[in-house]
Amino acid sequence: MTGSPSPNRSARKDHAGGRPEIPRERLLLASRPVLLALHVIPRWVLIGVFAALLLVGLFGPQWPAVVCLAVLVLILGWVLALQGVSNGRFPAPLRVALLAALVVILVLRATGHG
Fold first, then answer.
1. Residue 67 domain-assigned?
2. Which residue, 20, 52, 56, 109, could crosslink 25 as a Cys pair with Cβ 3.0–4.6 Å?
3. Which domain does 36 fall in, by range?
4. 32 lies in some domain
């Protein structure tokens, strides 16, 4: 079995210029500069920013709340896409449920029902 390629390698084909064809790998490569910049920022600052976005999104006036929740949904979706399928801490259904809950809250706030 030494001659047969692994399943990951057989599914992966590079485009011209060496760019990976698998969307998650392309996302990882495109996200690298942003991740490196975020890595420099102290963790407490990021937690504070996300907490502020969530608090304004839940309790603020309608349109600032919608903007804050939209930013949170985009960031959370991006991070969950980077994590992929396997993560020991949070199973995939829980991560999808969290994102779906934020989207529901966003829609409710945007339509004036929340």
1. yes
2. 20
3. 22-110
4. yes
- Whether the per-residue pLDDT at 84 is higher than 90: the answer is no
Place of tokens 């996302």: 27
In a domain, residue 15? The reply is no
Tell me phi and psi for residue 78, to 5 degrees: -65, -45
Tokens 């990882």, residue?
Answer: 28
| Residue 21, pLDDT score | 60
Site of tokens 């495109």: 30
CA 113 from chain centre, in angstroms, equals: 26
Helix (H), strand (E), coil (C) string for 64-98: HHHHHHHHHHHHHHHHHHHHCCCCCCCCHHHHHHH
85 domain-assigned: yes
Residues with Cβ within 8 Å of 82's Cβ and at least 6 positions away in sequence, in order, are: 24, 27, 28, 31, 35
CA-CA distance, 6 to 3, in Å (whole number)?
9
pLDDT of residue 19: 56
| Single pTM value for the model | 0.72
Low-confidence winner among 36-40, 65-69, 97-101, 110-114 (lowest mean pLDDT): 110-114
